[in-house]
Protein: cysteine synthase
Organism: Kangiella aquimarina
Amino acid sequence: MKVYSNILEMIGHTPMVEFQNLDTGKCRLFGKMESQNPGASIKDRIAVSMIEAAEKAGHIKPGDTLIEATAGNTGLGLALVASQKGYTLKIVMPDKMSMEKEYNLRAFGAEVIRTRSDVGKGHPEYYQDVAKRLSEENGWFFINQFSNDANIQAHYETTAPEIWEQLDGKVDAIVLGVGSGGTITGIGRYMKEKNPNVEMVLADPEGSILADYLKTGDIKEAGSWVVEGIGEDFIPDICDMSLFDKAYTVSDKEGLMAARDLMRKEAVMGGSSTGTLLAAALRYCQEQTEPKNVVTLVCDTGNRYLSKMYNDEWMKEKGFL
Ligand code: PMP
């Protein structure tokens, strides 16, 4: 029988699709459909690798309680794994993240603790600081994707080789965002080993410090942005910024409109970070004078943002439409 023995086996091996109805200039643009993972985001991969690494190291065993700070998708990936392996899950998530993510997490039986979105790292109400404190107070295991090497490893061992094989090694550029930095460090390392000429391109929301850091080497004060899951107010431990060759800053409006356009023209319903990546990828493609194969990620499903970016009323209220 051609069957999977459980849902976790269905993580990864996501399809790659060409976007042929967008203005990609001389380039071909491909989207890796991470939204097709069972938890509907790229974070399923790291949920498995981080939990299995902690088990192997003897830090956790089924029955224990895990806590994680997340924009939501890592939480949803962890919820799949926790359900199948028998862990209790606590999720700390800033209040700007969509209600769909919270409902989805609670449906899995995870406890969701919301925190302020308007404070930065080091503030006692910042989501990562809250998760760390709760873990220490209660003896829960803090997964901490921002400093966890198993996050990098998942992308180095699975996402990156899949991209390489799907394009028969004919990869010229990859456009990515940074949340924890796991995807850039894992995919970037793999690609540069295969071919140092592969360009790694950062798509950064306006207000994040990362694109500016690449250009100037300075860390400015962070602003705010509505796109979820990418953009940072600090440089995560596992994020190797030296792997990036180029950076684009994308406004909320440009990113969200790009995602809506992707849905109308390609019938691919990605989330808000997908829109930011796509907007940067299109600018990159249009600037090229030679034909190139460019890859970007459909990081998660747009179903998570039906009340926000796919809701015209919300878009108008925010001044994006
Ligand atoms: N897109 C979405 C929707 C995410 O939730 C995340 C992770 N927070 C990313 C992109 C960024 O990936 P990474 O954490 O590997 O940098």
Summary: The chain has ten helices and ten strands. The two ends are 50 Å apart (CA to CA). Residues 41, 43, 71, 73, 177-183, 229-230, 271, 273, 299-300 surround 4'-deoxy-4'-aminopyridoxal-5'-phosphate (CB under 6 Å).
